[in-house]
Write the structure tokens for this entry.
Amino acid sequence: MDQQAIFLTVRLATLTTLILLAISIPLGYWLAFGRARWKPLVEAAVALPLVLPPTVLGFYLLVLMGPRTAAGRAVSVVFGHPLAFSFAGLVVGSVLFSLPFAVQPMTSGFRSVDREILEAAELLSPGRGRILVRVLLPLIRPFLLTAAVLAFTHTVGEFGVVLMIGGNIPGVTRTLSISIYDQVQDFAYTQANHTALLLLGLSFLALLIIYGRRGRAGV
Amino acid sequence: MSDYLQVDVERTLGDLSLRVSCALSAPWTVLFGPSGAGKTSLLRVLGGLTRPDRGRVVLHGRTLVETANGAWVPPAQRAIGFVTQRPTLFPHMNVTANVAFGLSGFSRRACEERVGQMLELFQAGQLAKRMPADLSGGEKQRVALARALAPEPRLLLLDEPFTGMDADLKVSILEKLSTWLAEREVPALYVSHDVAEAFQTAADVVVINHGQIQAHGPAQVVLAGRREQLLRQLGEGS
């Protein structure tokens, strides 16, 4: 089995999940409780990766990250190198591609909180941050777990975006799903089977965690 | 007591058009009216949970909301305690943590002391370590009262908080609550369907219907001769 690809994939998925949790908590809160007229615009943009072919997202990211656009050149200055075909570029792509898998459970979680409980907290505590940390996040823990597990597993399994913006560079951008593709191309079916079984087991375990926790939490 | 609360607000909520203009001075004011009359809506406006379309609210000389100049004090900064009919304790915190939630800025020792006092006041000391899911409706309500009073609010809003509570316990809790409020000169605005209660508590009464105040004054004056009419109205509304 491709040890390098396993390590790279776990690193990518962990980093992506942490970034997505940091983004999805405030974004999910705003989507659940915000009243801006243009909220549907943000909701649609967040959900776009659910319906968009990964290659389309990957293509636009590749163009954006390339040296021909102002954005690409600006990012190159920040990172010291172009994002395309780099691990950092892969992280950016993964975050965008898995965004709905983290944001939507968080939004549902915030929406599920009893309005009167939230109002009771607002009457007693002046800080929104304190209400978020002490009341909301503990109450939506099962949704938080779902967001984290879905973000992690979805990143582990992504193929199209990774191939478009990362290519297939061993140790840099070759993830497990790319590794399987390579092994099949080389007719190394036994190896491909081992890697595929690993992904299958990992995905099943993740879903088992989500449904197990949901069952206990009564969600 | 001089006027502690001046209210002049308008708010349209679905079919209800709330238009209330009054000044309250009695330490204990009972808000009467049939279901859907606008009692809860008025309390929500006072507590800052609903914004009025127009008007102002002034509590103890401090403007809480004034739509004309955009003034708005958030709920937690109004120093108003609010206990609703359905106790809304935080389900993931035990009774002690629930009561302590509004005590930010207290030292740990002062916080423990205050929580203990409030729980004792409402005969809930033995519930300190219990979780809300393990409490009866009446116990939850007593904890909710302790939680609302712990930060020592300057106005207490009570929206039928004793519904479903044992009659003897209700009398005992009401007595202790009245004493506590009187000692600290904290006025209370109390939504109730019980006409007898208004007489017992020597309260001022505000009769509200269709979102407007129909009568306001001492219970003996407002309710005298209106008892039958009020009972009929309450019967129709509930």
Observations:
- Chain B has two domains: 5-79+154-237, 92-152.
- The first strand of chain B starts at residue 5 and ends at 13.
- Chain B touches chain A at residues 47-49, 74-77, 80-82, 84, 86, 88-92, 101-102, 104, 147-148, 151 (CB under 8 Å).
- Chain B has a mean pLDDT of 88.
